[in-house]
Specification:
single chain, 214 residues, alpha/beta, five-stranded parallel β-sheet, 8 helices, 9 strands, 42% helix, 19% strand, globular
Length: 214
C-alpha cells in the first residue's frame, strides 16, 4: 500500500549522550534532577572516584567507589570518557556504562564541569553539549551569596572563574539560560527531542520506512 508506514520495520531508538555544564551556581544539579524526574528514557552518568564514600552516599548512585589500583587499570584500558586527579583522588566518567545505556537506546545525561566537558568532547565528539548560563553575572553572585556557604574571597574567586568559563560557550552546541527553572528544564528537554529528529543522522533509516511495498 503506497505511502503507508510499515511499523514492522526496525525502528530502534538511538541513544545519545548529552553533556550539561556551566559555571558553579547556575543550577546544573537542580535541572538534572528535574530532567530525571520527568524523562523515562534518560540515564544519569555516574562518576567513578577513588575517594572514600561519605555519609549518605550510595555506591552506584552517588559515585562508583573504587581503589586507586582499579581506577588506574581502567585508565590503562582507555576506559574513561574523561578523568582527572584532584589532589590525591581520581574522578572520572566510565565509558563502559555510558556505552551500554546508549546501545540500549537510552539517552545519557552527563553533568560535569567545563574542563571535563572539553575532555569528553575530544574522546566522544558525537556528544551533544549544552551550556547552562545564569541570567547575568550579577544574578550568579546573588545566588552564590544566598547559599551562605563561602567566604567573600571564595565567592570572588568563583565569580572570576565563571567569567573565564563563559568564554568556552562557542565550543558548545546549545545554551540555556536558567532564569526560570521550569522553563530551563523544558528547553533542555526540547534539545533532547530535536536531536532525535535530526535529518542528517536519521535520513536513510526514516526513508526506508516509506519505501513502496513490493
Amino acid at each position: 500500500m503506497n505511502g503507508r508506514i510499515d511499523s514492522s520495520k526496525d525502528n530502534k531508538r538511538e541513544g545519545k549522550l548529552f553533556i550539561l555544564s556551566g559555571p558553579s551556581g547556575t543550577g546544573k544539579g537542580t535541572v538534572v534532577k528535574q530532567i530525571l524526574k520527568t524523562c523515562d528514557n534518560v540515564a544519569l552518568s555516574v562518576s567513578m572516584t577513588t575517594r572514600a564514600s561519605r555519609r549518605g552516599e550510595v555506591h552506584g548512585e552517588s559515585y562508583y567507589f573504587v581503589s586507586q589500583e582499579e581506577f588506574e587499570k581502567i585508565i590503562d584500558k582507555d576506559g574513561f570518557l574523561e578523568y582527572a586527579k584532584v589532589y590525591e583522588h581520581y574522578y572520572g566518567t566510565p565509558r563502559e556504562k555510558v556505552m551500554q545505556d546508549l546501545d540500549a537506546g537510552r539517552d545519557v545525561l552527563l553533568e560535569i564541569d567545563i574542563q571535563g566537558a572539553m575532555k569528553v568532547k575530544r574522546s566522544f565528539p558525537d556528544g551533544i553539549f549544552i551550556f547552562l548560563l545564569p541570567p547575568s553575572l550579577k544574578e550568579l553572585r546573588r545566588r552564590i551569596e544566598a547559599r551562605a556557604t563561602d567566604a567573600q574571597d571564595v565567592i570572588d574567586l568563583r565569580m572570576s572563574k565563571a567569567a573565564e568559563e563563559i568564554r568556552y560557550l562557542p565550543a558548545y552546541d546549545y545554551y540555556v539560560i536558567n532564569d526560570d527553572l521550569t522553563e530551563a528544564v523544558e528547553k533542555v528537554k526540547s534539545i533532547f527531542s530535536a536531536e532525535h529528529q535530526r535529518v542528517d543522522q536519521t535520513a536513510e533509516r526514516i526513508m526506508e520506512r516509506y519505501k513502496e511495498a513490493d
